Structure prediction request, 724 residues.
Amino acid sequence: MNAAIEDLPEGAGGRLAENVMHFGRVLRAAGLPVGPGAVIAAVRAVEAVGLANRTDFYWALHAVFVNRRSQRELFDQAFHIFWRNPQILERMLSLMLPSIDTGDGDGEDKAEKQVSPRLAEAFAAGKQEAAQRREAEEEIELDAAMTWSDEERLRKKDFEKMSNEEIALARRAIGRLRLPILELPTRRFRPDRQRVRADMRATLKAALKTGGDIIPLKFRKRRTRHPPLVVLCDISGSMERYSRMLLHFLHAVTNDRDRVHTFLFGTRLTNVTRYLRYRDIDLALEKIAETVEDWSGGTRIGRCLHEFNNEWGRRVLGQGAVVLLITDGLDRDAGIGLGREMDRLHRSCRRLIWLNPLLRYDAFEPKSHGIRAILPHVDDFRPVHSLESLVQLAKILSEPGQRRHPGMSKWLEAAA
Amino acid sequence: MPKPLPASVDATLDLLGRGAYVADRSLATALYLALKLGRPLFLEGEAGVGKTEIARVLAATLERKLIRLQCYEGLDVSAAVYEWNYARQMVEIRLSEAIGDRDRDALERDIFDDRFLIRRPLLQALEPSPDGPPVLLIDELDRTDEPFEAFLLEVLADFQITIPEIGTVKAEKPPVVVITSNRTREIHDAIKRRCFYYWVDYPDAAREREILKIKAPEAPAALSAEIVGFVQKLRGQDLFKLPGVAETIDWAHALTQLDCLALEPEIINNTLGTLLKYQDDIAKIQGSEAGRILADVKAELAMAGARA
Prediction:
C-alpha cells in the first residue's frame, strides 16, 4: 500500500499542492461540494499529517473533503484511482474539454471504468444544462398568455382527461400555486406591542436611553414558522398521469419555501429533493427522470414506506413535519406489512394527509387491501386530480384545526 | 502550564487510549488534524456510538476544562452566549437614582459592567484559562434550528463574539471545539465546511470486545464475546433502531448484575429492552429469532475457539 505513496512527488509544497488541487477538482466534478477553501485546508491537513503513512493521508483528505456520510463511497473510489495512478488525472482533465469525446477508453483497468462514467456525467451535465436553457428560452417566446377564463374552465377538469395543450396550461397554473401551511409557534421571540410577555433585554436598553429615570416595559411574542413538509409521491403505472402533473406542483412548492423534502416511490424509494431545487422545471424533471428507475411500474407501498421509516424518517420528520402521501393505494403486495409502516409514519409526524386521485369518482369505495391498510392511519383523505383539488389542499393546510379531520370518520366506517 | 497537544496521529491514538477510549486510527487522524490546525471536529453518527464521550475524554486527558453547550430548539443568544442580570441592573439604576450621584453616561457604563454579565457556554469558552484553552462541546447541533447555526458560523470563523454594550470578546487561543450531531436533520454545509468531518460508525467485533473489556471489566470474557457476537449480528438485522455501543455496555452491565455467565435464550428475552428501544424491534427479535441468532453466535465462537 505504501508503494503508491512514493509516486507522489517529494518535497511537498509545490507539486503535492497542485495534485491535491487537481484531486479536489475531480471530486468537485463528481458532485462533492469542494471549493478553493477546502483545497487549501486539504493541503494544510496533508502537511500536518505528513506523507509517511497512506492511511493517515487518506483520512486527512477525507476529513476535509467529505462532509456527508453519503459522500464516503465516491471519495473512496476517487482517492484510490487518483492517488494510485496520477496519469489518470490527465485523462480526467481531458474529459473536461468539451471538444474531446467522453466515450473513448481503451485498456484501462476495471476500477477506472466504473468511476469515469460518473465523472464524465458530471462534465456532460454542464453542456446539457446550457442546451436545456436555450430550449427553455425559446419556449418562453412561444408562450401565449393564458386568459383567466381558460383557467376557470381548467380548474375542474380531471388531469387525465386534459389534452396536451390543456396540460401545458395547467402546468403553468400549478407553477403559480402556493401552499400556505399553517404556521406554528417556535421557541424564538420577536418584539411585540401586546402586553403579554416582557422583554427584559429590550426594556433595560430602552431605560438607559432616558437615563434610567423611567423604565418603559417592552414586550415580545413567539415567532411563528411553517413546519417542514415531507411529500411521498407514488409514480407507479396507475398514478402516471397524476404524478407527472404533481411533480410540477412539488417543484413550485419546493422553490417557494425551505424545509420541503420530496420522495418518489414505485417499487423503490428515491429522494428527489435535491433535483427539485433546480429553478428550471424542465431541468429538474430531466434530472429526476435520470435518477428514478421505477417509473410507471408496480407499487410496493409497504416496502417503500419501510425504507422511508428506517432510512429517512428520523432525518426529515423532526420538528413536527406535515406529511403528504400521494398514492392511489393500489398495492402489488396487497397491503402486507403496510399497516405497520403507516402506523410508524403516522406516529412520527405532526399530520399525515393522504391525497388519492381515485377519490374523483363519487362512487369510490375503500375496499382494496392497500387502501384499507392505509386509511386508519391518516389524518385527512382528499382527492387530487384537478387544479381545484390542489387549491383546496392549500386551504386545508392553512387552516387551524384538529389533527384528524372530522370528515375521516365517514371513510373509516366505509373501510371497516 | 497547559498540557501540550499530541504531536502525531499515533500520539493522539495514545491520548484517547489513556482516557479509556478505544478509537479507530481514522478517528485519531481527524482529531489530530482538528487539534493541530485549530478547526472544529464535526462528529456525526447514530445515537450511542460514543460521540460525546470523545469530547469528555479529550478534556480529561488534556486536563482542560470541558464546556458543554447542549443544543435544543429555540436555543438563543441569551442561553448560549451571555445574558445581563436584569434584576441587579434595575436595583443599580434605582440606587443611583436615590443617591443621585451619577450622570447618564456614567450610569450606562456602570450598568453594563462585567458584574452584571452572566456568561453562558460560548462566552466562557473564549475566556483565557490557566490550563490552556478549554474543550467546547456543542452537543446535538441537529436539535437546534438554522438561525442558531448561522450564529455559530460567525463564532467558529473568528472565535470572537460581539456584545454591543461592551465590545468584542476575542479568544486569545481558540478553544478545542467538538460538534456532535445525531442527524435528525442535515446540518448546513457552511458549518461542515469549516470543520473536519468524521462519521462515527459502529465498531467491528474486535474493537467492541476491547471496549467491553475497558468499560465493563466485571463481565467474564466468554460472556463479553457472546454479547459482542450477538449485538454485531443484530446490527445486520432489519431493525428500526440498531443498538449502539452504549447499549452493548448497558447490556453487559445488566447481564453481570444478573450473575449470568453465558447467554441463554430466556435471559436474552428478559433483557432485550436494554438493547432495543422500539417495541416493533423487540417483538421481531424476541423468541425464536433471538434463539437462532444466539445459536449462530455460539457456533461461530466454538469454531473460532477450535481454530485457536
Notes: The longest strand of chain A covers residues 184-192. Chain A touches chain B through 45 residues (CB under 8 Å). Chain A has three domains: 2-122, 184-225, 229-415.
